[in-house]
Amino acid sequence: MMRWLPPYRVELMLHGEEFGDFIEAPGHYLFISERLVQAFKEDGLTGLEGFHPVEVVRVRRKRRGPKSAHVPCYLAVTARYGRAAVDLVRSRIRYADEPPTCEECRNATKNAIHGFTLEAGTWQGEDIFRPRGLTGRLVVSERFARFVERHGFTNMVLIPTEELVWDPLELGPPPG
Fold first, then answer.
1. How far apart are CA 65 and CA 1, in angstroms?
2. CB 67: neighbour CB atoms within 10 A?
């Protein structure tokens, strides 16, 4: 995938009444509110890079209703690709064909996830990152989870890694 370069101009689709502090965007980009950025930096959290301004050129509503009076200022960021690696033995991931064979990327086609864990000693303390073996997923530290709760940031659902379920084909957990 080609890298998206500034200026960042976007159309947003508003699904609810208000805009959230966190938006997952195409290409592993995230849009985060200025309020979240300020608190992230003040609290000394790590794992996000970029912090480029986003120009919202249009807002569409998913449902009819009054127009939102205020569109927050967003910044485009990416979460680091961390050194933390999915533990292939202890995680409950159903692979399409074979489990990963590359120790570095640990990537293989997945049919289902019924919880995962990180390999001991691979996480380097980032507060938000993409782990090897699940680069499409964001993982956050407990410190980040407390940060979100303390500040009341919106549009984020934080699920403990061992409780994450993604099973679009309804195959169930892997055997064993």
1. 36
2. 8
